[in-house]
Amino acid sequence: MLDKLIESVLRNRLVVGLLFAVAFAAGTVALLNLPVDAFPDTTPVQVQINTIAPALGPEEIEKQLSLPVELAISGLPGLIHVRSISKFGLSQVVAIFEDEMAILDSRQLIMERLAGVQLPDGIGRPELGPISTGLGEVFHYVLRSDNPDRDLAELRTLHDWVVKPQLRKVPGVAEVNSWGGKEKQYHVIVEPNLLVKYALTYDDVATALQENNANVGGGQVVTGGQTLLVHGLGRVGSIDEIAAVVITAVDGVPIRVGDVAEVTIDHEIRRGAVSAGGRGEAVLGLGFMLMGENSRDVTPRCHYRSQRSPKQGRYGLA
Q1: Which of 309, 301, 205 is nearest to 255 (CA)?
Q2: What SS3 class is residue 39?
């Protein structure tokens, strides 16, 4: 048998050479595209469901958010286990499926069930977590500035609206999270004594701000062969515009937000901070890789994009 094999190989040298070249080329391509990770990713097929309710405590979160979501997704095809965490202001439900289930199919099944979940008024809809795993953190970077006039709030705004959108365009990136800094907010600090003076309530102020912060369309007007769009611009964009919002009128005199409250630019309540290199606080960004991607390819792409900007040059990431 071995003699016949050797004789066949010697007789068909060209065919054997071509087969060897094809096998060598395929092996080289497979080696270059081999996923390289520090640890093997054994994470099962799982989907995170996050619901935010800033005003509710852990007990109310469990009763009003976590439990309805768990009941809604129970009985799905391929579902193995469901676990949840109820914290102050956050409900996180994790659904684990069989390994044979595709991650996109699992997310689609859950989204169909979540469409019918009834939650209390004033609470946002449940959102699915990124298509990533616990070992998907492949890119960490720090955003800081040597300019003393640029504070943590400006750095956080720069990261959320400039750096983060650019990194999310990188192929293989599932999500980019922001840590540290100060998230910019507009605060309306109501003075209770002034509310009593004008016979108003907190709900009156909140309703006035909500109803006077929207743009509406008014149709179109055709004149002279041209079509002109008619719309009302009512969305506020500055402190003065917020303070000028009318709450009510007394004897023809308008009572504005600025008459009963102080409008300032501040930041969200901080629950932590980030420091790096012994140089004080900074803004930290975490880039998460898509499930099944090669970290050896995704990380250089993120690093290359982080050092370039189509409009502003370098981001100054450290």
Answers
A1: 205
A2: coil
Per-residue model confidence as pLDDT tens for the chain (318 residues): 777 777 787 788 888 889 999 999 999 998 887 776 667 778 889 999 999 888 788 899 998 999 999 999 998 999 999 999 998 888 999 999 998 899 999 999 999 999 888 888 878 889 999 998 888 888 999 988 888 778 888 899 999 998 999 899 999 999 999 998 889 899 999 999 998 888 899 899 989 998 888 888 778 888 877 888 887 888 888 899 899 999 988 888 899 999 999 999 988 888 788 888 888 888 999 999 998 888 888 888 888 887 765 444 444 444
The vertex-110 CA angle with 107 and 111, nearest 5°, equals 85
E strand intervals along the chain: 45-52, 79-87, 90-97, 127-128, 137-143, 173-180, 184-190, 216-223, 226-232, 246-250, 253-256, 261-267, 283-289
Answer yes or no: are the C-beta atoms of 175 and 298 closer than 8 Å: no
Return the H-helix or E-strand segment holding 30. helix 13-32
Residue 90 is which amino acid?
Answer: L
Question: How many CA atoms are closer than 13 Å to the CA of 135, on its beta-carbon side?
Answer: 14
Q: Which ranges of 74-102 would DSSP assign to H, the alpha helix?
A: none
- Single-letter residue type at 184: K
Contact 94, 48 (CB under 8 A): yes
